[in-house]
Amino acid sequence: MFFKDVIGQEESKRLLIQEVRENRIPHARLICGPEGTGKMPLAIAYARYICCTNRGEHDACGVCPSCVKFNKLVHPDLHFVFPIVKSAKGKREICDDYLADWREFVLNNPYFSLNHWLTEMEAENSQAIIYAKESDELMKKLNLKSSEGGFKITIIWLPEKMHPVCANKLLKLLEEPPAQTLFLLVSEAPDLILPTIISRTQRINIRKIDENDIATALRDKYSIQPADSLSIAHLANGNFIKALETIHLNEENKLFFDLFVSLMRLSYQRKIKEMKQWSEQVAGMGRERQKSFLQYCQRMIRENFIYNLHRSELNYMSMDEQNFATRFAPFVNERNIFGITHELSEAQIHIEQNVNPRMVFFDFSLKMIVLLKQ
After folding, report:
1. Which architecture characterizes domain 249-372 according to CATH?
2. What are the sequence ranges of the domains in the chain?
3. Tens of pLDDT, residues 96-116
4. How many CB atoms lie within 10 A of CB 363?
C-alpha cells in the first residue's frame, strides 16, 4: 500500500509526508475517522514511507529491500495489533496466531470493516477484542533491537477494542516508549479510548472521502461507467467500503434491508407470532452482526425521515431502499423519530451487554407497533 493507492485524503498525505521529510515523526499517532475513509491504507503507506531507504518526494520508492518486504507486509520491524476472537479455529489470545490470515486479508481488501474481518475469522457469535496478553507480546517485540536499524512500527487497528489491562499496559509504553518506536492507532471511535492514551498521541482526523475521488477510483479501478460512478459515490457518502458493497451487491446489506422491511411491515400489521419468529432469526446472527444490523436500522430511519423533506441531495439510499421509502417514509415523522432512535440505541446497548438477543429484538419489535402508529 502506497500513498498513491489511498483514495483522496490529499491533505492528510501531505501532512504525514512533510513530517517524515522534516524528521518530525512522533512516537505515537492517532489516526481516526469514520469507517471506509482509508485510515488503515494511510497508516500502512505512512509506515512504508518511513521505512523506505530511497523515498521520493511524494511516495516510497517501491523497489528497495524495505519496500519489497512491505509488499507482503512481512517487514520485521512492522507489527500489527487487531481485534481477534479466542474461540475461532482453536486459536489462542494473541494476534500472531492470526497474522498470516491478517496479512492476506489486508493485502486483498485494503478497505474493510470489522464485520469483514469477523467473517474472515469465522467468529460466529463471538465479539472481537484485543486481549490482555497482547500487551505482553508487544512489550517483548519492542524491547528487541530494530532488525534493520530504523523505526519499530506498531499499527493498532481499533484500539477502542482493547481489554482494559492491555490498554493500561499500552499507556505505560506510550509514557516511556523504547527508542525509535512509533505507534499508529487506527480508530473509528476515539471517545472509547482511555483519555490518558489519547493525550500521549498526536491526533489526525480523517474526513469522509470526497465524492469526486470515490467516483474517479470506481472508474479507474473497477471500470464503472461515469454516470454510475457518480451515483454510487453519492450513495457512499464518503465511505469507500459502502461504494464497493454497492457494486458487488453485498449480501449482508441485502439481508439487513430485507430484515428491516420485514420488521416494519409485521409491526404495522401487528403480527405478533411472525414478529417472534423474526426476533429468533435475528438472534441467530451473532452479536457483531446484530450490532451492525441495528446501526443499519438507525441509518434507514434517518434516511426515511429526511426523505419526507424532498431533498434528494441529502438522501443516501440504494434504489431498493428508495423504492421502499416512497411508501414507508410518511410513517417516520417528527412525532416518533426520537422514540424510534432511542429504542434502537437502547437495543444496541443491551446487545453489547450480552442481554438475551431474542428478548432485545422482540421487545424492540413490540415497541415499533406503538411508535409507527404515532
Report:
1. Up-down Bundle (1.20)
2. 3-205, 210-248, 249-372
3. 888 999 999 999 989 999 888
4. 16
Tens digits of per-residue pLDDT, 62-81?
A: 899 999 999 999 999 999 99
Mean pLDDT of 137-146: 85
**Cell 514511507 appears where?**
49
The predicted model scores a pTM of 0.73
Write the class of the CATH domain 3-205. Answer: alpha beta
